[in-house]
Amino acid sequence: MTDQQLNALLKELTLEEKISQLLQLAAPFFEGSGTEGQITGPMAAMGINDDIVKNTGSVLGLSGAIETIGVQEAHMKKNRLGIPLLVMADIIHGYKTIFPVPLAIACSWDLEAAEQSAAIAAAEASAAGVHVTFSPMVDLVRDPRWGRVMETTGEDPYLNGEFARAFVRGYQGKDLKNDLTRLAACVKHFAAYGAGEGGRDYNTVDMSERQLREYYLPAYKAALDEGAELVMTAFNTVDGIPAAGNKRLMRNLLRKEWGFDGVVISDWGAVKEMIPHGVAADEAEAACKSLLAGVDIEMMTTCYEDHLKQLVESGEVDEALIDEAVLRILELKQKLGLFDNPYRGANVDREREIVMSAEHRQAARDLAVKSCILLKNESVLPLKKEQNIALIGPFAQNGDILGPWSWLGSKDDAVQLYDGLKSKTSRIVTAQGSDIESMTEEQLEEAVKAARDADVIVLALGEHSDMSGEAGSRSNIRLPDAQLELTAKLKSLGKPMVAVLFNGRPLDLHGVYDVADAVLEAWYPGTEGGAAIADLLYGDSQPSGRLTMSFPFSVGQVPVYYNNFNTGRPQGAPDAQVRYVSQYLDIPNAPLYPFGYGLSYTTFAYSDASISSDRMAFNQTLKVTVKVENTGDVAGEEVVQLYVRDLAGEVVRPLKELKGFRKIKLQPGEAQEVAFILTEEQLRYHHSDLSYTSDAGEFAVFVGPNSRDVLQALSFRLTK
């Protein structure tokens, strides 16, 4: 269908039909869905009738080729002009083959693996008939109390942007219309959803525009520069206005300044939520403000459906705004080829062939290996095949390792830790020890009995999936008391102890890191989690994951992040006083484990750091090199990280900013020179007038294995 034909189609639509194109409904409203007619509670109160459904533009939550084909077929017969539905779904880190949660994927520091995970998710979901995924989520997060941190890629704007690009490439490929194995990507949540006060979901966000542009917007822009077709609004306020009704954010910044001409969709119910936010008196005002702000699709509320016609007739809303929103939706359907092939990639045979295929499961296993971080190891790991192992804890035999946003992932398909270890050794006993949040005397006795004859205790600890994810905010981010009590009791046996952690956020690890001899952060590792962890524990694979979000020493530090500002009275300065400096009296300022941190089964030495010149003109580049040597006995991968500090800016600048990284593999005794190119563009930042430029002056350069343990012997002056 040509642009001319799309415009002609738009003119054929009645006002009522156009308004219904702006509505997204869940699967139970549609004939042929597996949940057809299961409309209860708030959905029943929406007042949706058959006339609305047949003109609706999109559906969310369908799954499986048979279902999506059936719904589309029924819809096409009922829709007067035969306009196909857009099928959208939350394909966050896998369709049926579940990869590690996005925060874990980021900890691989492997952009190619991240892209491959998105491509596999797209292949499976497209075969099942999905057209659009509500991913990637690129919200920058500095507060681990927020449950949705597991959906993000961490605390650094540069790294978040690189992963945003990788995920979009994986989902959309190079030819979205003709490559039926791909999905349209919807970047979310625009904007600054990860900065909710107190780490509480849906909560207020209040920050300066300079802060917003410097740290929170870059990853969204990166995803859009890579070609993401949709943007989802955030639930939160931005500068006092909820994102779903924020004209300055959507019309001015997103559309005019950035030039985005794709579809903007609200999050679930966000248009109507402007009423409890207190910026709309009723649904009519909410509809008016959202459309004026530039929201094209209203998800699962009916403010548009119930009120836009009257708003047009009263002159409060120009019908041209509805036309442009509908045209964007039709253009997306055209980009996906739906007018030529309404069923697109939905194919029962292909679905049966590729979903949960051995190849896809192997990719999930490989990425799970790369995503785990070895936080501590006092000569306990890797395990030896001749050792007697006691596997104890609520995650010893637990399939709840997929994460809270795994949607169609099955816990029954997940490789549990016990099964993974059992494939490596027969010298293993297991006991649950405790539930996730409680423990009985019988469980504890069973655990102690299992541990008595063991050479090594492996503790499988963590959060159940409902303790993180959306609406999963927690004020106490330690492990539940029952698990800490179990850990302390088993430590009294005097056995070497390895803690494996399954969780969706950085934790306060007191009671674990200071008790266990080794700590492996596994996050929610996905379908092949148990197999991947067993590979790591027995040394068949080497730990190579590095943190992309700091682990706090205490929740009292939160937010704690590496790229923080200095103060006028910094702790540890050469002339600092003892008391009157910026510090806590009872805990350190620094996190327990910093951004970029992670151990290996080998060691690496950094030396011979150099910079090509001590001066750089605005039109020049600098080359930074460092020698990295594997000084251990086994091969290993290291993530070499480059940081820069602007020593005197027009506004205060972070103590360090990540500007590049390289993941390298070295054999024992092997050394490699790693090189980075620094450009003037990388030194730019948002000034007080929001201009985005660099300043002439002195810069410090740091190279190392994490944001804390760096070589600091390099500097240069940027000259005009």
What does this structure look like?
With 720 residues, the protein is an alpha/beta fold. The protein is 29% helix and 19% strand. The strands form six sheets. An eight-stranded parallel beta sheet has the order 9-6-5-4-3-2-1-10. Strands 11-16-15-14-12-13 form a six-stranded mixed beta sheet. Strand 12 (389-392), helix 18 (417-422) and strand 13 (428-431) form a beta-alpha-beta unit. Helix 2 crosses helix 15, helix 7 runs antiparallel to helix 16 (348-354) and helix 11 packs parallel to helix 13. The longest helix is centred in the N-terminal third of the chain and has 17 residues, at 111-127. The chain is globular and about 75 Å long. The two termini are 52 Å apart. The mean pLDDT is 97.
Arithmetic mean of pLDDT: 97
Gyration radius over CA:
26 Å
Compute the separation of the termini in Å.
Answer: 52 Å
- Residues in helices, as a percent range: 25-40%
- Count of helical stretches: 21
Q: What is the 3D shape?
A: globular
Write a concise synopsis of the structure shown.
The protein is α/β, with parallel strands linked by helices and 720 residues long.
Write the layout of secondary structure elements.
Blueprint: H1 3-12, H2 15-21, E1 23-26, H3 41-44, H4 50-55, E2 58-60, H5 65-78, E3 86-89, H6 102-106, H7 111-127, E4 132-133, H8 157-172, E5 184-190, H9 209-216, H10 218-225, E6 230-233, E7 237-238, E8 241-242, H11 247-257, E9 263-265, H12 274-277, H13 283-293, E10 298-299, H14 303-313, H15 319-335, H16 348-354, H17 358-371, E11 373-377, E12 389-392, H18 417-422, E13 428-431, H19 441-452, E14 456-462, H20 481-491, E15 497-502, E16 518-521, H21 529-537, E17 604-611, E18 615-617, E19 621-630, E20 636-646, E21 657-666, E22 671-679, E23 685-686, E24 692-693, E25 697-704, E26 711-719
Helix pairs in contact: 1-15, 2-14, 2-15, 7-8, 7-16, 7-17, 8-10, 11-13, 13-14, 17-21
